Amino acid sequence: xxxxxxxxxxxxxxxxxxxxxxxxxxxxxxxxxxxxxxxxxxxxxxxxxxxxxxxxxxxxxxxxxxxxxxxxxxxxxxxxxxxxxxxxxxxxxxxxxxxxxxxxxxxxxxxxxxxxxxxxxxxxxxxxxxxxxxxxxxxxxxxxxxxxxxxx
Length: 152
Description:
Layout: H1 11-28, H2 62-75, H3 85-88, H4 121-132, H5 146-151
């Protein structure tokens, strides 16, 4: 603001202009501190979130599950979902099936290069320690027997 004013204005006038500018700006920035609802009956109410409600769970018996599975199998056209595509079709049906349709490994892995997981001395010690403790891990929570607690 000070750079836009003319050079002829002295420092006191310049400060007075700046004060007036700040006062006008602050008068427009006041927030309303009064809040009221004119008509509470017309106020829109938002429903609860879905994760706040507890759904009623009905466990179907085995007959209902069997009937539903049979109906789904009769309506669904995917009969061979447990098989690979090259076991159900002679040729790829779509262009997406062309990639990996006739999958065979390029080469067999040599057993010399297969590094299986082996136990180290720390693992062997932990297993013997657990076996000596009656099969219970030292980090498992222990439950007190109430009859043994009353006897002591």
